[in-house]
Amino acid sequence: MRYGEMEVKNFNPEEIEVWPNRNxxxxxxxxxxxxxxxxxxxxGYPDYATVYIEYVPSSLVVELKAIKLYINSFRDRHVxxxxxxNEIYDLLYKKLSPKELYLxxxxxxxxxxxxxIEIDSKKN
Length: 124
Description:
Radius of gyration: 15 Å
CATH class: Alpha Beta
Binding site for substrate: 62-64, 81-82
Shape: globular
CATH architecture: 2-Layer Sandwich
Keywords: Cytoplasm, NADP, Oxidoreductase, Queuosine biosynthesis
Strand order of the largest sheet: 2-3-5-6
Number of strands: 6
Number of helices: 3
CATH superfamily: GTP cyclohydrolase I, C-terminal domain/NADPH-dependent 7-cyano-7-deazaguanine reductase, N-terminal domain
GO cellular component, one term: cytoplasm
Number of domains: 1
Strand content: 25-35%
Helix content: 25-40%
Distance between the termini: 42 Å
CATH topology: GTP Cyclohydrolase I, domain 2
Order of helices and strands: HEEEEHHEE
Main location: cytoplasm
Protein name: NADPH-dependent 7-cyano-7-deazaguanine reductase
C-alpha cells in the first residue's frame, strides 16, 4: 500500500485537525474539492461530486490537508448522496462551531440524474 492510500485508510474523522482562528474580523473561507467520490449503496457504481464548503469561522479553522483526507476517505464507502453531504456538514459544524456554514455537493450525472445537495446553517 502506498503512503497516500495508507493516510486515507487510517484517517479518523473525529481527529480532523483544526487550528485557532487568529483573526477577529468576519470573513468567509471557501474551499472547493473537485474530486469527491463514493460508491452507490445500492449498485456499487462510483459516484463523483464537487464539494463546495463556505464558512465564517468563529475560534477555529480546518486544516486543508485534513479536509482533503476526510473527503478522500469516502472513496471506498457505500454511501448515498444525502448521507455523505449530511455527514460532512455535521462533522464540520461539530468540530468548527462556525458562525455560518454552507455545504454544496454537486454530483456528476449518472443514469440521466443530476443531484445537488445543499445545506445552509442560515436556513436550519
